[in-house]
Each structure stands twice: as structure tokens, then as C-alpha cells.
Amino acid sequence: MKKHFPEFLATFIVVFCGTGSIIINQISGGVIGHAGIATTFGLVIMAMVYAFPKAQFNPAVSLSLALFRMLGKEDAAKNIVFQVAGAFAASALLKMLFPEAQTLGATVPSGTDMQSFVLEILLMFFLILSALKVGEYTKEIQAFTGVVVGGVVLLEAMFAGPISGASMNPARSLAPAVLSGNMDSIWIYLTAPFIGSIAAFTIWKWLKKT
């Protein structure tokens, strides 16, 4: 359990801070704002990359690592269980703290489902490919992985958040959707990140062979 607990803790912190910023923005009349929400997600993910460098805190990443034999299947499965548990714990606490929050920061498309589906695939693809490419270089460059990952999340949340919610994480979307009962279009966020992540790993592997 101790081996996989960082997945629970990192995912808990990401969901608590990220969706918490959405909730607080809603109940405070927009004090945080869209830019503030995007920045919150970027900063908390950057912090977690450095705090727990071996954790994935994202089911799509864990599954991709297992598919490409970079992580054992059993470890990947346990990581996903702990990630989902961490997300639900964070959303449950937010629901207790802010009972007036109707959506708990759930990701809901503002346009068509297909529009958000394509966006979420591309957002995840860009994010994972960026992280994988940074990991190829020297230790000095790899030291900036957290900055790059957090920066890409901030960038993508900034421009795509108003349309798709810029989830890029099935656990982050599933927990608030279930606990708020807002399950509309949840299929997007439970499929697109996996497709984008697997595509990123595939392209990365192919580029390394050339």
C-alpha cells in the first residue's frame, strides 16, 4: 500500500485544489476567474510532479505506461485504483465543505460533445508528448519536467478550458461528476485522455526509432 499511496495523495491534492478553485470561483462571484483556475491547475500539477516524481496521478498515463511495458500491469492497476480513490476523497471533502456547489467542479462541454472529445484527445496528446520529449534529454533539462508539464496544463486550460473543461484526467472528471450527479457527457472524459495518451506514447516511440 505504501508504494501506491503517493498516487492517492497526489491525485487528492490535484483534484482538491483544481476543482476547489472552480467551486470557490462560482460561490464567490468569479473572484478567481478563468485565468486563476487555469493557473491553479498548472501550479498544483507542477508541484505534484516535483513532490512525487514517480507518481502518475492520472489513469490514462498509468494505462499507457503498462501498454508500452514501462510499468507492470499489476502496478498500473493498483495505481489507477489509488488515483480514483484520491479523486473521490477530494470531491467528497469539497462536497462537505461547500454543500451549495452543484457541480463540484465537474467538466462539462460548453459546445458539442464531439468538439470537446477531439479537444480532449489533442490536449492530452500535447501534454504527454511534451513530458516524454523533455525526459529524453540531460538531467539538467529533465529537472524542468515539472515546469513544462505544469506550464502545458496551464496553457491548455487557459485556451481550451472554456470549451471542454480541459480535464486531461479521467479520475479528475469522474469523481465530481459522480458525487454531484452530473454525468452528462462523462464518456468524453473517460475515453479521450486514454486515446490522447496512447497516441502520444505511440508517436514518441516511433520518433525514437528514426
Distance between the termini: 40 Å
Query: Please, what is the average pLDDT?
Result: 96
Question: For this structure, what is the CATH class?
Answer: Mainly Alpha
Quaternary state of this entry equals single chain
Query: What gyration radius follows from the Cα positions, in whole Å?
Result: 16 Å
Q: Would you identify the regions where 5 or more consecutive residues have pLDDT less than 50?
A: none
Helical content band: over 70%
- What's the CATH H-level superfamily name? Glycerol uptake facilitator protein
What is the overall number of helices?
9
Question: What pattern of helices and strands is seen along the backbone?
Answer: HHHHHHHHH
How many domains, as an integer?
A: 1
Report the portion of residues in β strands: under 5%
CATH topology description: Glycerol uptake facilitator protein
Instruction: Summarize the biggest pleated sheet.
Output: none
What is the 3D form? globular
CATH-defined architecture: Up-down Bundle
Please report the total strand number as a whole number: 0
Class from secondary-structure proportions: mainly alpha
